[in-house]
Design brief:
CATH topology of the largest domain: Trna Endonuclease, Chain: A, domain 1
Radius of gyration: 18 Å
CATH class of the largest domain: Alpha Beta
Structural class: mainly beta
Strand content: 35-45%
Number of helices: 3
Distance between the termini: 33 Å
Order of helices and strands: EEEEEEHEEEEEEEHEEHEE
Shape: globular
CATH architecture of the largest domain: 3-Layer(aba) Sandwich
Length: 241
């Protein structure tokens, strides 16, 4: 997925609210939109190097978007919209093996009281509902979701369970926006209810998948890196690995 610029490099200073960053750019302070409301203290702290997109517009209160932060020597995408954009390219290209036989991709289908991310259809295949989730968090090479309590995420899992019970195929896809994760786990310390809902969903036939992504700093592209397992390890054991 090619990101649209122009891009520039800056440094993070502070975060007055969930969606606003104050950054230093060429000796000046600028305001940047953070397209991710989750807490990210390990990624956004004073002095960390950023990639910003210059995107002024009359309706905006900020002239920049925060795109990436440098973490352990590499840039990580922070935009929680990226998973949907990635899947919007990968699914029609039949680039993801578990879904490669589907030929019709519909974004944002309504199901129950939710709008899920994708509905896939294919000849002689059960229609498949997909909900995509963004993970930017990793501890000891384990990716985690979520970073904050997510009642919306829990609701999506219940909708997927309902769809599966009605004869559809249903899947939750975690896009881990970093290359160092070797597996994905529910973050029970942050949102135990989501972890419980995910385990229940999987027991009831919802398929969990996870892929890591790679950010190409030279070409400003984000691509699927590799598939990793979703590990439903119990709460008391998950931080001991």
């Amino acid at each position: 997925m090619k990101l649209q610029g122009p891009f520039t490099y800056g440094a993070f200073l502070k975060r007055p609210n969930r969606f606003l960053a104050i950054c230093e750019l060429n000796g000046q302070r600028v305001r940047a939109y953070i397209p991710n409301p989750g807490p990210m203290p390990d990624l956004l702290f004073p002095g960390v190097e950023l990639i910003l997109r210059h995107a002024p517009a009359p309706h905006r209160s900020t002239d920049y978007d925060l795109v990436c932060a440098r973490h352990h020597g590499i840039f990580l995408s922070l935009d929680c919209r990226v998973p949907n954009w990635i899947l919007s390219e990968a699914l029609p290209a039949q680039a993801l093996v578990p879904f490669a036989d589907y030929t019709e991709i519909s974004p944002e289908p309504v199901y129950g009281e939710s709008r899920l991310d994708f509905l896939l259809k294919g000849k002689e295949l059960p229609p498949c509902y997909i909900e995509a989730k963004s993970s930017t968090d990793a501890i000891n090479n384990i990716g985690y979701f979520p970073r904050a309590v997510t009642p919306r995420g829990q609701r999506h899992l219940h909708e997927l369970m309902h769809a599966k019970a009605k004869g559809y195929r249903a899947a939750v896809v975690f896009i881990v926006q970093r290359t160092d994760a070797i597996r994905l786990r529910p973050n029970d310390q942050i949102d135990p209810a989501f972890g419980e809902a995910l385990r229940k969903a999987v027991r009831n036939g919802v398929e969990p998948f996870a892929w890591t992504t790679r950010f190409d700093e030279e070409h400003f592209e984000i691509t699927i890196d590799r598939q990793i397992p979703v590990d439903l390890i119990s709460t008391e054991d998950q931080y001991s690995a």
